[in-house]
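Predict the 3D structure for this chain.
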Amino acid sequence: MAAPTADDPSSEPNLRGKDTDKTDKSPSVSFVSSFFGHIAADEGSVIGIWDAEAWRDHFEERAAIIEFDGGLAYLEAGHQAFADTVEQWLVMHPPEPTEDTAGCVHCNAGLGEDGVPVLAGGAHTWIHSQCHHAWLTERRRHAAEKLCAMGIRTMRR
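Done. Predicted structure below.
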């Protein structure tokens, strides 16, 4: 039996997770294509980045879920959704990998016995344990600034 070709509809993935006719062009496939259409390749990132519209969609969806499913007040839901969106930014924009010989990624001093590896885009970046909190706080501040520049802010009535 010949292997399916790119033109063969039976080679399309079943994204709905249930048995279906392989020739069925499901809405799920078009949704996934549409969603990933928001992702643009970023030369400096292994993962890629979302455009401003995708970030706003993520924030608004999180806020709605937290407010309605979580039963939180509008303003609190907005604050939590913003914090979640900042964390998502950090995941999608990992720090650059470094070698332990390069020193601490935060203060640039030698690591000595105090070096701690932090996951960074499939590798590690190195930091002093006492520098980790300040470094992560700075990364979160930077992410919040980027999101605010796209018009994403905590909600106000």
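The longest helix spans residues 74-92.
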